[in-house]
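Run: sequence + manganese (II) ion -> complex structure.
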Amino acid sequence: MKITVKSGRMETIRSGAAMVPVFEGEKLGATAMRIDRALGGTIARLIERGDLVPKAGTTFVLYPEGKIAPLRLILAGFGKRSELKAERVRLAAGKAASAARSAGSRDLLIPIEGIGIDPEQLGQALAEGVVLGLYRFLTYKTREEGNGKKDLVSCTIVASKVSARLQKGARTGQIIAEAASMARDMVNTPSADMTPAVIAGVAKGLARTHRLRVRVLERADMQKLGMGALLGVASGSVKPPKFIVVEYRGGGKRPWIALVGKTITFDSGGISIKPPENMDKMKDDMSGGAAVLGAIRNAASLRLPLNIVALLPSTENMPSGSAYKPGDVLRTLSGQTIEILNTDAEGRLILSDALTYACRYEPAAIVDIATLTGACRIALGQEASGMLGNDDRLKQLIREAGERTGERVWELPLWEGYCDLIKSDIADMKNTGGRDGGVITAACLLSKFVQDRPWVHLDIAGTAWTDKDRPYTPKGATGIGCRLLTQFLRDFKYP
Ligand code: BES
Ligand code: MN
Ligand code: ZN
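>> structure
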């Protein structure tokens, strides 16, 4: 996708399609007014009759039949002007871009005159909306959709005058959205083709194109270190586990920030095997890893003045003759022991070793992100990811990043009483606390491995996958967390 910024007036530029922003409950804006005059009042009549209700994320295609230069007009609802923010722009641009593509256009003009938000934010949100809205996963399609032949390939943001900030925003937005698309691709790819080894290869590939260093610990390295929890989960799979370490050094002598992503390439449940319904979705259990990989890639692309380490503990969770079993006790890298009650509560196990490893960096902040509990989806649905942690400042930063990116989070309490539920009779703790407060008891276990460092846990079990198309999030992997963590890193200030 080529995104450019150009000065001029949309109606004089030849193109396959042009977007016309329309606000709800008010007179037509500057661009829409001029276009409407050229068309003889069609747009105003459409609104008056109620054929077009310009709610955020709605579109309406019009053919101007030669009255202006663009071949098609995509009227794009922006909602009420008083509620306009970056998320609305993302929704509108995403929907407009996919509507333009469906109509057959190869390019799209986006006039911004009268969209009154900060130019840098506007450029970023437009680019994100377009790139994410056009996202498709075609790797395994041999016939349909022409494998990208008819794709929309260029997008021009049209301003009365081009500013450096608008241009910078558009560039930033494109970088960030392309990383999120990479995360979506990784998650959409079947587990047979997105193994721990493949993910390690993806990380190594990034180290060649970006300023990143990658180290991959093999099974023998994990054994030497004593990562008994990760190795326990991995013991049922014939695919070798990988512990992937990605470092970005852009912050000189400043302390590290650690990002930890659950990277289970397939979660069958293990010996405590899951029921067959929706088990196919368990290829998304590496969404946390994909998110942190996307975020550290963005940190490098945007040259953020930080030192960041991304940790991806990666394995399948499979039943077999060599698999770990309920009743087993695993000795973690920290030395603490965990009694296994259910092999399907594997995410917290691999994270416990990864969090301990993260502490070796003496990080100023740790954020882990994981498709950790079905309970989180029950609690918050698909609208918010669960957030728990031990540091108010860090939680506030993540909360704000969530609002700005549209990847919103909602906090749940991490009170002592909940942590009593994971006490074990024979080990230091057990890996499930029963059905009550399942999101929280999982986080309680994680909290035992962060050595009192500032830490936030994000549970994305409900948000990593969507079963219905949304304006800039088609069905399938959402890539959640990549943009959220990127925004968090951009806003991060040392205490
Ligand atoms: N990966 C799953 C959580 C999950 C469930 C993600 C549904 C997305 C959709 C996780 O490993 C898991 O199986 N959790 C168990 C924990 C339980 C055994 C304590 C769960 O949520 O049922
Ligand atoms: Mn599981
Ligand atoms: Zn899992």
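>> summary
The pocket of manganese (II) ion (ligand 2) is lined by residues 267, 269, 317, 344, 346 (CB under 6 Å). The radius of gyration is 24 Å.
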